[in-house]
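Usage

Read records sequentially. Each one opens with the input sequence:
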Amino acid sequence: MRNAKFDAVVAYHEAGHAVVCLSQDVACHRITIDPEGDTAGSNDHELLGISDDFQYDPQLGDEEKALVSAMICYGGNIAQRRYASRSVHHDHARADRMYAYDLASVVCDTDDELRLWLRLARIRAETIIERRWPAVCAIASALVDRRTLTGAETDAIYRATMEQVFDEAVAKRGRVPRVRARPWRAEEEVAEALFERA
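and closes with the structure output:
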């Protein structure tokens, strides 16, 4: 029997997926914390399913599309762990991890490249969740109250929250926040190793 605590954990997980989506301009069509099949909740977005018969063509930007999709996969567990670390178990989000692995196995040529590619996806997702945590909380709260959100509702909550965060930062600093010029060192190291070709 599900309780309010469990619903909140699921809400943060699905909100994590949604925030990574929206930060990358990937539309969320619908998110819910109601169980569907063998899942505790779900997030339907426009990149869902691209691992099925994925045909990799670097000229069409498919690697970036695959990387964003993998980032979305990691976003749920990252947000859930930040909200309630003890709620995360090894078998949680197995489908998300396997989905990301399937994409990596198509894009990458070697095992070393595959591991680096997945690490890069995870680091980028962690960065997004860290910097947009207020939006994760706002979407999760709305999910607990309403249980299901449309894409338009999710987008509106995300944009309103991030605008508020931006306005508060401007008011506090007296100027527009400076955008970080360089990525986090860990991400930079992974990117260099991943994309450097002999």
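Summary fields computed downstream for this record:
- The chain has seven helices and three strands.
- The chain has a mean pLDDT of 82.
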